[in-house]
């Protein structure tokens, strides 16, 4: 009996940090995000997930705008169908405004890009709740951005 073939799933990793502080270090926040995402993708090798060669790192750019060089390059590659899954550490690394996130989801759907994947939540297009959950995360990120820290005793 022939083993079922696994379709290769091309995964891109997008990283972002808002400040340039520490970017000149040998190992910085962008590297940490990339390494964690890479490990996650490797954990999904049984499903055919592989990392594409291109890195998409925006160091020193706010998540309040999509006007970032590597994000735009990533979106061009989505339009060019060069990848299947985008892996980010947290959704707010991609964008913070809910309206921008909704536009990105529309772009991903229009170009048949597979799910946007965060480590804690795998978002697919086959389940109805997959349309809801991506919209909840940026909203929570927005609230977190302005909420005062809570101290637990």
Quick structural overview:
The chain has 153 residues and is an alpha/beta fold. Helix 4 runs antiparallel to helix 5. Helices cover 41% and strands 15% of the residues.
Explained architecture:
The chain is α/β, with parallel strands linked by helices. The chain has one domain: Resolvase, N-terminal catalytic domain (Rossmann fold), CATH 3.40.50. Helices cover 41% and strands 15% of the residues. The chain is built from 5 helices and 5 strands. It has helices spanning 29-43, 69-79, 91-94, 98-110, 128-146; strands at residues 9-17, 49-51, 56-59, 85-88, 116-118. Strands 1, 2, 3, 4 and 5 form a 5-stranded parallel β-sheet that branches. The longest helix is centred in the C-terminal third of the chain and has 19 residues, at 128-146. The radius of gyration is 16 Å and the shape is globular. The N and C termini lie far apart (60 Å). Residues 120-136 and 139-153 have low confidence and may be disordered.
């Amino acid at each position: 009996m022939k083993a079922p073939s696994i379709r290769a799933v091309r995964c891109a990793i997008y990283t972002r940090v808002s400040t340039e502080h520490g970017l000149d270090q040998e190992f910085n926040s962008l590297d940490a995000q990339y390494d964690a995402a890479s490990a996650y993708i490797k954990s999904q090798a049984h499903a055919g997930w592989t990392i594409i060669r291109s890195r998409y790192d925006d160091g020193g750019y706010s998540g309040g705008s999509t006007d970032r060089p590597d994000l735009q390059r990533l979106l061009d590659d989505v339009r060019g169908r060069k990848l299947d899954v985008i892996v980010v550490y947290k959704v707010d690394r991609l964008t913070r405004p809910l309206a921008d996130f909704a536009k990105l989801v529309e772009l991903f759907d229009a170009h048949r890009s597979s799910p946007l994947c965060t480590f804690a939540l795998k978002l697919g297009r086959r389940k109805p709740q997959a349309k809801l959950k991506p919209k909840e995360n940026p909203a929570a990120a927005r609230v977190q951005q302005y909420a005062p820290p809570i101290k637990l005793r």
